[in-house]
Amino acid sequence: MASLELRIPPPIVFLLCASVMWWLRAGEVPALWQRVLLVLLGMVGAMLGMAALQRFHRHQTTVSPIHLHKSRHLVTCGVYRISRNPMYLGLFCWLVGWACYLGGGGVWLGPVSLIAWLTRFQIIPEEQRLKARFGDEYIRYCQQVRRWC
Prior knowledge:
Largest sheet: none
Number of strands: 0
Number of helices: 5
Strand content: under 5%
């Protein structure tokens, strides 16, 4: 299973989960509260993602989770004081909003699957590489900021 580590870009995993959720949906017309949650969680997810991308751009380091060897700076400010993985947290917010919108019990496999996949095949390998690259600075950061939020 180690061969899957850092191989599939997280947006692809997100789209796969969202597609499966569509297939598992309840099929009912979404109620107003479902639409509102979709919009609100979508906005939260977008804000997290945009804030994270802005920080990476400001520090002139790579945003690619596949090419961690190109990381030039450890970003620990801004939204990275709340979560070590705000972009992934943003994707999770989008899927939770999508699950609320679609309705039905089966759709909740999407957000759960996303968290499980990202943690095992993306975040843990990223953390190992960032620890090797940034050493004690990264270890201190991990002690101060949670993986998700």
